[in-house]
Amino acid sequence: MTLPSSNTVDAIRTTDLRKTFPDPEGGRGANEVEAVRGIDLACHYGEIYGLLGPNGAGKTTTLRMLATILVPSSGGGTLDGVDFVARPLEARRRIGFLSASTGLYPRLTPRETLTYFGSLHGITKDVLGARVEELVGTFDLTAFADRRCETLSSGQRQRTSIARAVLHDPPVLILDEPTTGLDILATSDMIDFIATRKDEGRCVLFSTHILSEAERLCDRIGVIDRGRLLASGTIDELREQTGETYLDRVFRALVADSRKAEAPA
Amino acid sequence: MTKPVRKPRVILTVFRTEVRRLLRDTRALFTAVILPMLLYPVMFLGMDRLEEVSESSLDGRSVRVAYDLHALDEELATRVLERLEAADAELELAALELGSEQEAAALVDDAFELFLEGRAPDRAGDLPRAVLVFDRSSTLSNEAEERVGDVLRELQDEIRTERVVRAGLRDPAEVLAVERQDVAAAEDAAGRNLGRWLPFLAILMLISGGSFAALDAFAGERERGTLETLLVHPTPGLSIAIGKFLVVLATGTAALVGNLASFALTLELGLGKLAESAAGGAPPLARMGLAVLAFLPTALLLTALLCLVSARARSFREGQNYVMPLALLAMGPAALSTVDRVELTSMLALVPIAGPAVLVRDVLSGAAQLGPALLCVLASAVYSVVALSRLAHTLDAERLLSDRPARADRGRRGEEARRALRYGLVAIGVVYIVGGRLQAWNPVWGLVLTLWVCVTAIAFVYARGRAGREDLTLASALGLRLPSWKLVAVAACAAPAVAFLNRFVFELQERVLPAPELALPEALTSLSPLALVLLVALSPGICEELLFRGALQNGLAKDLPPVRVVLWQALLFGAVHASIYRFVPTALVGALLALLTLRARSVVPAMVLHTSYNALLALELLEGPGAGLVAGFLLVPAVFLWLRSARP
To answer: What DSSP line would sit under A6-75, residue for residue?
Structure first.
C-alpha cells in the first residue's frame, strides 16, 4: 500500500449521499423511509474521523453504503479515489470493513478464516500463506490460531476480526461501533489498533455513540441525527459552534437545534 | 497484493470452505445424511417384523362365536355347524337363541366376538341367510368375522359345485375364463416398479439431505452476522451464491446416493417385503443413466428452491419452518409417478416435478415417448434456469440488511386501493344488471354496448379521478405505457398455452362441478370469423383490460404488495364473468394478466394476451380444439423471453 504523505488529501469523499428504504409492505412510495438524507463527508489519510449519533441516526446505513454493501439511492463519492457507486468491486479492495458483530464463522479457525477471506480478496496463493502468518504474529493470534472461533473469547474473536479487516492492507478502514460488547482489555486493544492505523497514514472512519471514545481518538467528528450530518469538525470547532464545553453538551445542543428546526410549526 | 478474483476461483473457494464447515458439524451431518441411511432398512425390517408379530399373535388366539341356526333347514344347519367345528380356525362355539337384534349387539359387545344367525327366506323363492353380527371397532371381532366368513364362503362354493355336478351342467355364471399373460420383459417390469417410488424418494432425500446445508449456508449467514463480512469482499454475489448452491446440491446428492445404496443393499440382502416385490431384476444401466439425466433439471430446480427458501429466513429455526412446506409441495406432485393410470401428456410434461417424476418412471420401464419427454426436460430446464437466475438475490444486501421500519400513517394507507376495489364492485354490478339486460335484448349489440360504453366509461371515470388526485396523465393512470417488445412477444406466445392450461383446469373442475356445455349464442355463431374475433376477442381485450389491468390495477398497486394485487385481480375478474362454472378459469386468467401487467408496467401486453386468448377460444368453439403439444412448446420461448425482459 502506498499512501499520500499529506493528511489533507481526501481518502473518503461523499456528495449528497442518500438512502431510502422501500416500503416493507410492497406498495409504491407510500411508506418509504429516508434513512440517510444528503450527507457530504470528507475524511483524509492519516486521520481518524468519528461519526457520532444516537441509535437509528443513520450511522450504520452510511457506513454500509461506503463499504458498498448497500447502494445509495442517490448521490455518491469516492474511496481512495475510486467511485464507490460505479465501481464497487474496485472500491472494496481499498477498504477494510468491520461490522458491529465480529462476523466470524464458528466452525472455522482464525487461520482458516484469514485464508478464506484472503482468497476472496484475490490474494495470490504464494503470498497468502506468508501474509496470514504475518497477521497471526502481529495480532498475537498464535495461541489460538488453530482453534475453532466458537471456542474463542470475545477479545480473541475481535482480534481475529481486525486481522481479517486489514488482510489486504487497505488504505481506508471503516469500523461500525468497533468496541460494542467488548470488555475493558479488548476495548483498549481496539483503541490502540485504531491509533496505530492512523500513524501508518491510513484513514479510519468509525461510528460510535460512546463520547469518551470519540473525544480521545478522533481528529474530527461528524454529528449525525435522523439521516443528516448536523456538524463536522474538530472537537474545538464544535465547542465553538455550540458554545458548550463538554462533548455531551455539544452533542445535545446540535441534535436539539436540528430537531427544533425540523419540527412542524 | 490483490488481483481481480476469477469467478471459478471464488466458486471453488466458497465451495471448499462451506464443505469444510459442514463436515465439522458432525451432529447435523449425522442427522441429515447418515441417520436416514441407517433408518430406512431398519424401518422396513421393523415394519415387517411388527406385522409378523401382530399377525402371529392373532393366529394363536381363539375367538368366541355364538350361533343360532334353528331357522335354517336342518341339513344346511348341520353342514354349517360341522364346517365351523372342523375348521382350522380357532373358534369357540356356543349355541344360543336370542329374541332380538339388540340382544345380539349387546352379546357381541360383552361375551362373544361374533354372533352367527341363520334366517329363513322372507318370501318363497328367496335364499336363506347367514347373518354375521360383529363389531368392526374390535380387532378380535374383525378376526372372527374373517374366520367365519371364510368358512361359509368355502361351504357355499362346495355346495354350488356339488349341485352343478349332480345336474350334469356347467355353472351358468361362467361365461369366459380369463387368464393374464404379462409379456413385459423382466427389466421393463423391474423398471416400472422402481420408477413408481424412486422419484418420490429422490425428492424426499434431496430436500431432507440438502436442507441443513442450505439453511447453514444462507439463513446461517444472517444469524451469525457474517453476511456483511462476506459481502464487503471484491467478489460478485452470484459467484458466492453459486458456490453455496453447489454445496447444497452436493449434500443433497450425497444423501440421495447414500440412501439409494442403503436401499439397494436392503434389497440385495432380501430384507423385508420390499425385497420380495422388487425381486425380478433391475432396469438396464443405460436407462438408469437416462433417468438421471431426466431428473437432473428437477434436482437443480429443487436445490435452487431450497436455497431461495433458506435465504428468506432470518434464522436457522425460521428456515426450518419454510423447508417443511417446500418438501410437502414437492412430494405431492412427485407421488403421481406411483399412480399407474397416469401417462405423460404434453400438459403434464409442463408441470414441474410431477412431469419429470412420471418421465423417470416411463424411462426406467422403457415406455417414454420422445415428444412429451423432450418437452418435459425442456420445461424443467427452463424452470431450473428461472430458479437459478434468482440465486443472485439470495445475497441481496438491500433486502437482507434493510431495516424494516414500522408502518406509519396507517389511516391514509390503502385509501386508493379501497377506492379501486369500490369501482371494481360497481363495474361488476353494472355488467350484471345493465350488461345482462342489454345482451338479453340483443346479444351482439348488447355486448358491444356493455364493453365499449359501460366498462370503458368506468375505467375512464376512475382513471380521470386518480389522475386529478395525484397529478398524473390520464394515459399513465390507465397504464397505457409503451411496453418492452419482449413482453408483448411473451403475451403472443403464451396465449395458446394459457388456453391449454385453462382446458386442463376445466377438466379438473368437471370432477367437482360439472359445467353445462359451453357454446356461443346462435346470434354470434352466424357472424363471420373476423366479426366474431372483433366482438369477443378484441373488444374485451381492450375494454376489460383498460378497466381491470389498466385503471384498477394501477390504483391497487399504489398501496398493495404484488401478491395482493394479483389476488384481487383474480377475484374481480372471476366475479365479473358472472358464472360459477367459469369463475376458477377466468380468475386464473385474471391473475396471469395481472402478473404480466405488473412485470411490464404497461397494460398493452395484457391486451395482446387477452385478445389472442379469447380469439383462440372462440375459434376453437367453432373449429374444434387445437394441438396441445404446440401450445406447450410455445410456452418455452414465452418463459425464456419473460426471463430476459427487464425487471421493473
So the answer is: -TTSEEEEEEEEEEEEPPTT--SSTT-EEEEEEEEEEEETT-EEEEE--TTSSHHHHHHHHTTSS--SEE
Chain A within 8 Å of B558 (Cβ-Cβ)?
yes
Residue A252 lies in a domain: no
Question: Which chain B residues have a beta carbon less than 8 Å from that of A108?
Answer: 17, 20-21
Instruction: Report yes or no: B648 at the A interface, CB cutoff 8 Å.
Output: no
Pairing of strands B114-119, B129-134: antiparallel
What cell numbers appear for A89 in the block?
Answer: 468491486
Residue that the C-alpha cell 338479453 belongs to: B440
pLDDT range class, residue A109, cuts 50, 70, 90: very high
Task: Tell me how far apart the alpha carbons of residues B502 and B425 are, in angstroms, rounded to a whole number.
Answer: 25
DSSP string computed for B358-405: HHHHHHHTT---HHHHHHHHHHHHHHHHHHHHTGGGGG-HHHHH---P
Give the list of residues 6+ apart from residue A28 with CB closer than 8 angstroms, or none. B557, B558
Q: Provide CB contacts within 8 A for B279, sequence distance 6+.
A: B270
**CATH number, residue A60:** 3.40.50.300
- Structural domain that includes position A184: 10-236
The answer to whether B471 contacts chain A (CB < 8 Å) is: no
pLDDT in tens, A124-138: 888 999 999 999 988
Under 8 Å between Cβ of B107 and B115: yes
CA distance A221 to chain B (A): 25
H or E element in which residue B68 lies: strand B63-68
C-alpha distances in Å from residue B364, one per residue of B122, B195, B369, B405 = 58, 6, 12, 54
Backbone angles phi, psi at B91, to 5 degrees: -120, 125
CB contact under 8 A, B17 and A116: yes
**Is the CB of B5 less than 8 angstroms away from the CB of A70?**
no
Cβ-based neighbours of B610, under 8 Å, separated by 6 or more:
B540, B541, B544, B545, B589, B593
* A35 neighbourhood in chain B, CB within 8 Å: 403
Q: Report CA-CA distances (Å) from A69 to A82, A237, B230, B234, B481.
A: 15, 32, 10, 11, 34
Q: What pLDDT score does B574 carry? A: 87
Is residue B274 pLDDT above 60, yes or no?
no
Please report residues of A whose CB lies closer than 8 A to that of B413. 27, 30-31
Helix or strand (DSSP H, E) at A229: strand A228-233
Q: Where are the domains positioned within chain B?
A: 7-47+186-396, 62-167, 418-644
Fold of B62-167: D-Maltodextrin-Binding Protein; domain 2 (3.40.190)
Helix (H) or strand (E) holding A172: strand A172-176
B401 Cβ under 8 Å from any chain A Cβ: yes
Distances (CA, A) of B373 to A14, B295, B300, B363: 57, 11, 18, 9
Q: Which three cell numbers stand for residue B181?
A: 399373460
**What average pLDDT does the segment A79-86 reach?**
91
- Say if A87 falls within a structural domain: yes
Q: Comparing C-alpha atoms, which of A159, A204, A211 is closest to residue A63?
A: A204
Domain count for chain A, please give it: 1
Q: Which residue of A has its CA nearest to B4?
A: A122
The Cα B565–Cα B479 span in angstroms is 14
Q: Each residue of B608-646: pLDDT tens digit?
A: 888 888 877 777 666 655 544 454 455 555 555 665 555
**Termini Cα distance of chain A:** 53
DSSP SS3 for B163? helix
Answer whether B645's CB lies under 8 Å from B599's CB: yes
Interface of A with B in 28-57 (CB under 8 A): 28-31, 33, 35
Span B93-102, pLDDT tens digits: 888 877 676 7
Q: Which amino acid type is present at position A259?
A: R
Chain B residues 411-440 within an 8 A CB cutoff of chain A = 413
User: Helices then strands (H, E): number in chain B?
Assistant: 31, 4
